[in-house]
Design brief:
By secondary structure, this protein is an all-alpha fold. About 70% of the residues lie in helices and about 0% in strands. It is globular. Helix 3 packs across helix 4, helix 4 packs across helix 7 and helix 6 packs across helix 8. The protein is built from 8 helices and no strands. The protein folds into 2 domains: about 100 residues, Rna Polymerase Sigma Factor, Chain: A; about 80 residues, Winged helix-like DNA-binding domain superfamily/Winged helix DNA-binding domain (Arc Repressor Mutant, subunit A). The chain starts with a helix and ends in a 6-residue tail after the last helix.
Amino acid sequence: MRSITISTAWSSLVKQEKRHETLAGEQVISFDALYQQYHSPILAFLNFLVGKPEVAEDLASLVFEKVWKHLADIQTADTVGPWLFRIARNCAVDYFRRCKPTISLEHLVPAEHPQADSLEEAAIAREEERFLLAHLNRLSEREREVIGLKFVVSLTNREIARILQIPEGTVSSLLYRALRHLRAALDEQGGHDER
């Protein structure tokens, strides 16, 4: 019974997608192509923002549900990326408003530090990572978003500016200020080596 319902729902979705592609006129933007291209970066960004993989998965599903409903609204292929990341950001903001969770970024840190050759180095690396994550939590929400888009999703400042709908210079300033704060905190702690 369940497989029949899923099969029926899937065929309905495929028909809707074809209708959306037709409505988009000359521009054919496939939901599958959008999903393939943007799911991983959106998920990584949401995971960085909310700090919980299972919540990030749920929010990513919500993002693509919204994309599905508004696929015909896409004006040009150039606007798709910023639009998707704005939806993701808004979903994360809504989540924080509803749940007011505590953020723990510790699960984002790899279990093994890539430069740790000994147990002592591994312990020092873990301590530095905990310290860095604690200071990431002290940054403003906007600074964390910019850091996430820049270093987790690997977007350019121009792309970040389009997503957050702020001037590119503001993105540069936010990045500079956030990185300066993190660097100063590491220097103060003695965890940043001068080379």
